[in-house]
Amino acid sequence: MDINAFVKLCYLLQHVGGLEHSRFVYVHEQVALFLQVLAHHKKNRIVSYDFKRSGQTVSKYFNRVLAALLKLHPILLVTPEPIGEAETNENWKHFKGCLGAVDGTFIKVRVELTEKPKYRSRKGEIAVNVLGVCDRNCNFIYILSGWEGSAADSRVLRDAVMRPNGFKVPSGNYYLCDGGYMNTTGFLTPYRGIRYHLKEWGEGRAAPQNPEEYFNMKHSRARNVIEKAFGLLKTRWAALRSNTFYPIKVQNRIIIACALLHNFIRTNMEIDPWELEVGDIFHGNEDDGFISSLDPSVTWNNWRDNLANDMFTQYRHRRRA
Questions:
Q1: If we measure between CA atoms, which residue out of 304, 91, 315 comes closest to residue 218?
Q2: What is the pLDDT of residues 272-293, one digit of tens each?
Q3: CB neighbours (10 Å) of residue 112?
Q4: pLDDT for 196-206, tens place per residue?
Q5: What sections of the chain are H helices per DSSP?
Q6: pTM: predicted TM-score of the whole model, two decimal places
């Protein structure tokens, strides 16, 4: 974060988040020690030594800045723009009306011994299952942290959609998801059991052989944006790469705060300093105009089939040209 972005962040925390100067610690110092903890995962005693403050003071202002930052979520979470007819990006141009991508990631946490079984993920880690939704520019639209690592991705998504003030998908739009989710209205998944790591202009079997394979290849390349967003998030904030000593409620709030800061940096700096380092890591109710059901839909499956056939037909014409 450059100095201009840092000053702007302090201004927002002070005038929107309600953060205030104290008699001995100004807002800028409070924010600086907060960022030190998140970016470098420094322990309380290290930060207190660096800033020549007591451990109690560091803990006090860390929590104050955290509370102020979470108040900025209406400002820092982005509003997505659907893919339009004029789109030229090869990864996205077929997905008209798409708003972005959805996926879950595991972030390690520290919990009491009796709580460990339900927080144990399928990878054997003690973690929370974090739902992330991002637009095509790797900015987070929605993030939900708190579900135990043992919870299935589809269950976490269902909870997010069903919450009164949760994740809203406008009717007529949709997000890209991986095969761990259900192919239903508003959430477009790949064909299961079909290849997707293919070369568009490859020879023989290296190229897509049918509409389903071509669809999966394009779907995977576009959906990669959420993997990149998670990669940037964990690379930028060391506090997310290993568990901390904070209570689990505070740990969940830290995850959300890191996502908000991620958006702030990407929208307030011309170049994200970590983007080149990460690169491509991996290949209400309906009357409100939002999707509120995640039940299987034959109509949605047929729409996916038609989209796949149209995409493959265009692809074959280009190969013959």
A1: 91
A2: 777 766 654 443 333 445 555 5
A3: 9
A4: 777 766 677 77
A5: 3-15, 27-40, 44-51, 55-70, 73-76, 116-119, 153-162, 211-236, 248-268, 275-278, 298-320
A6: 0.88
